[in-house]
Amino acid sequence: MSIRKLTCINCPLGCLLEVTLEEGRVTGVEGNTCPRGKRYAEDEVTCPKRVVTSTLPAGSARVSVKTVPAIPKERIFDVMDVIHGASVTPPVRIGDVIIKNIAGTGSDLVATSEAE
Description:
Layout: E1 2-7, E2 16-22, E3 25-30, H1 35-46, E4 49-50, E5 53-58, E6 61-68, E7 71-72, H2 76-84, E8 97-99, E9 108-111
Antiparallel strand pairs: 1-2, 2-3, 4-7, 5-6, 6-9, 8-9
């Protein structure tokens, strides 16, 4: 049995979580004040995911983008390699899918700002 301590990042409360693991399986979560904290703790110790944010050139401007949904943490550098080689042609609207299934993650790269 092992215990991992972490801080929940799902909301501003920042609950201090204690996750009990047995043979790589989560057997308990303590310290969360909501169900999202429990889900976060279980995911974080078994398969951590992150939303990747960046910007892309869009003509003479830049457009901010993010991955939707979050990607496995170990794939961040693969996604960033694709982003570094990409650009977009205006017009771009918030919510436009810039790259579908980026780096084979199952997540899309979506615009979070606009460019004319």
